[in-house]
Amino acid sequence: MNFEKPYFGLRGGWLTFWITLACGADMTLYGYDQGVFSGVVISQDFLRLHDLQGSSNTTLLGTVTAIYDVGCSLGSLPAYWLGERLGRRKTVLVETTIRSIGALLQASSYSLGQMITGRIIAWIGNGMWFIER
């Protein structure tokens, strides 16, 4: 027989404490992630690499930044279906994989299309994450 205690042997107040601590750290990193991108989009290297320099490209730069919301919206739609079909644990693995692929595309981006695609993919996973929580 398997007599392992679920949740690392924690119950009650201690379980609540550690879950709250983990969620707080996760949301802090989420906010940090958003804050880092705001510093990236004003970097001259980023603007030059993605051909976004000059005042004529401010709308396009705003679109690259705001595409995050579109991806989150798109990601929240399949989350209900996937969560019901695959279960919570597997859905979290799917969304984590999607976010990782999007992050890799953004980090390795050498074109504007790749950056936009990476942001949409990363935030589809992020939208799924919010529904699963």
TrEMBL record:
Keyword Cell membrane attached: no
Domain of life: Eukaryota
Annotated GO MF terms: carbohydrate:proton symporter activity
Record flagged with keyword Transmembrane: yes
Organism, scientific name: Penicillium malachiteum
Stored PANTHER family: MAJOR FACILITATOR SUPERFAMILY (MFS) PROFILE DOMAIN-CONTAINING PROTEIN-RELATED, PLASTIDIC GLUCOSE TRANSPORTER 4
Domain named Major facilitator superfamily (MFS) profile: residues: 19-133
Keywords, sorted A to Z: Membrane, Transmembrane, Transmembrane helix
Family according to the record: Belongs to the major facilitator superfamily. Sugar transporter (TC 2.A.1.1) family.
Any GO CC annotation of this UniProt entry: membrane
Subcellular localization(s) per the UniProt record: Membrane
Membrane topology: Multi-pass membrane protein
Protein name stated in the entry: Major facilitator superfamily (MFS) profile domain-containing protein
Spans through the membrane: 12-32, 60-82
InterPro entries given in the database record: MFS_dom, MFS_sugar_transport-like, MFS_Sugar_Transporters, MFS_trans_sf
